[in-house]
Write a structure and sequence with these properties.
This protein has 147 residues and is mainly alpha-helical. It has a domain of 91 residues. It is 78% helix and 0% strand. It contains 4 helices and no strands. It starts with 10 loop residues before the first helix and ends with a helix.
């Protein structure tokens, strides 16, 4: 029982068993491959402290340049956002002013029309006649403007 599970002599037997079912090309590849592949995490050649410090300073300088450029871009975007907000507020105020002016103009036109109707009733002339008079006046002005 002890011989069956011992690690001392069974490793080479396992290799022999796997070689029984392999093709000849696989056997030659297995013989050519190295036993251990190099790890990317192996320690590389030792770099001097002076070289390492210079590299770190270079990286820090690049990092500072990137941070400066990013901060300038962020401040430009912030300024753009503030200016857009001011422009939007100004345009909203202008829109409100225009709406108020149109409302006042509508009220003025309505009052003028009502006074014209009252005046035409007092004068004994129908409002349709006044409308015809104004239409003739505007047609005459249009004719003068064209020719």
């Amino acid at each position: 029982m002890e011989l069956r599970y011992s690690t001392a002599g069974s490793a080479h037997q396992r290799d022999l068993r796997t070689q029984l079912f392999s093709t000849p090309s696989q056997r030659s590849l297995a013989a050519l491959t190295p036993q251990r592949m190099s790890s990317p995490y192996d320690n590389g050649p030792k770099v001097s402290a002076k070289h390492n410090e210079a590299f770190l300073l270079l990286l820090e300088d690049q990092n500072e340049n990137e941070v400066d450029s990013m901060s300038s871009k962020v401040s430009a975007l912030k300024n753009l956002g503030v200016r857009m907000g001011l422009e939007i507020n100004r345009l909203m105020q202008l829109n409100d002013d225009i709406s108020n002016n149109f409302e006042r103009g509508s009220v003025t036109l309505k009052n003028t029309y009502n006074r014209m109707v009252v005046m035409s009733k007092r004068a004994g002339i129908l409002w349709k006649m006044w409308l015809g008079f104004f239409a003739l006046f505007f047609l005459w002005c249009f004719y003068v403007w064209l020719f």
